[in-house]
Amino acid sequence: MILQRRHLLKGLTAGAVTPLLRPFLNNVIAENNGTLPKRFLFVIKSSGLTPAELVPSDLIPSMVRPGEREDWPAELVPTKDLIDLPLKDHKLPESLKALLPFIDKLTILQGLSGKMCRGGHSAWYGALGCYHTGNEGNPGRASSATIDGALARALPSIFPHVGLTLGGKVLTGVKDSVVYPGISAIDADRPLPYQASPAMAYKSLFGIAAAGKAAEADNLLQSILLDHMVDDVKRVRSRIGNADQEKLDHYLSAFDSLRDRRRKLKGLEAEIRATAPKVTDKFTSEVETDRIEAHFDIAAAALISGISNVVNVRVDTLEVTYRGLGISKHVHGLGHSESVDGMTPVEARSRIRTFHLEQIARVAAKLKAVPEGDGTMLDNTLIVYLSDAAEKHHGSCVEWPFVLLGGLAPGGGNRYIQYPAYQQPGHHTIANLYNTFMHLAGHPTDNFGRLDNQLPPTLQKGPLSQLLS
Is residue 400 part of a domain? Predict the structure, then answer.
């Protein structure tokens, strides 16, 4: 019975089905062969990720100290010993509340350094590649593959790497074109492109579904994508079992969210946007939060459909202003603690971080809804939230926080981990974490990027053993 089912599925993939259905069917075949795909979603913010803001609220008195100035963010107290606590025993910080439903798959990771990278406004390729490059205004050259590029090679798919962003380099604003932000590379001197326009990203990734229907494809965003798939979907449903039909329904749901263009503005958000540019479509809107939401919808659909196993959403640049969140100051100004109407710069940064994590939670919920193997797609996915500027605006890279979410989360989730401080015994670097990712992908490495000459080489090699146990 299983052999007959596999034969039917292979026949469908070899036949003339809509191209967007083929990766889905290939994944179903792989699942029936006992091989489950592994997926990575990187979410990169600008202007630093404040470590103190990730500490569980009830631990703040003992683990957080005031900033150097009254209007500066609080600071994480360095530790000499490894801290490893179950998150369920503590209270998540306010900005992470959206991740509470996924706490069993959530790890807050602190204490890693990245001093092999440059500090400042951005570490450029170094943030994901573990090497020093560029200057304040220029990313320089990619010395080797960044972790998302390395994973893209290790986990091949139709689109090995999908990059989505709002702008180009860190000191530029919103774009509507293909850009090279200088943070991802597939190999030395081979930077990866990002699509800054959600509308164009949609067409580039999913427009193939309209092959042979040029008239509709001319304006794909206004057409109904699923109309091009109806006949094939009916044929596929008649030849697969109930479990795979359920998975197919969730697959189609991902595309439903992409064609849901019109957004209803509610409550305070509508009032905030009264003076902002008119919101007509989140894929073409000039409001940054609309475009970010659209990019996350695209990211979820790319992973669920199987057309990519590695997606990177670079959520903002320093010149982005979150008008959709009622913030009138751009990210650069907030990083310099410039005043903003109605809130402190710290409160504004927290509001932005909350928004980012809400988008991550939306993607996690979509993945959790899709059955796969004995669990769901979320069980075979790792979402990584970090900053290209380490711990703060003008980061020093002495501390590089991460939020990890998904069934591939190293160590299984439900953990708050803080490694010993820089140059303390037991300290580790972001290179160790990226080695860990490669181990999780089934392509183990013991060296990633370049070494920090101020640390013993042995501490920088191999994966983080605490996270693989």
Answer: yes
Confidence band, pLDDT 50/70/90 cuts, at residue 13: low
Q: Which of 172, 177, 130, 175 is nearest to 149 (CA)?
A: 130
The verdict on residue 29 lying in a domain is no
Alpha-helix residue ranges (DSSP H) falling in 260-344: 267-272, 288-305, 331-335
CA 39 to each of CA 31, 194, 234, 386, 447: distance values in angstroms, whole numbers, following the listed order = 14, 18, 28, 17, 21
Contact 286, 297 (CB under 8 A): no
Determine if the pTM surpasses 0.70.
Answer: yes
What single string gives the DSSP state of each residue in 134-161?
-BTTB-----S--HHHHHHHHS--SSS-
- Amino acid 443 reads H
pLDDT tens for 420-459 read 999 999 999 999 999 999 999 999 999 999 999 999 999 9
Per-residue pLDDT tens for 201-226? 887 776 544 333 443 434 443 344 45
* Residue 406 is assigned to a structural domain of this protein: yes
Cβ 105 vs Cβ 409: under 8 Å = yes
- In the chain, the number of structural domains is 1
Interstrand relation of 39-45 and 381-387 (parallel, antiparallel or unpaired): parallel
2 close to 271: Cβ distance less than 8 angstroms: no
> Confidence band (pLDDT; 50, 70, 90) for 17?
low
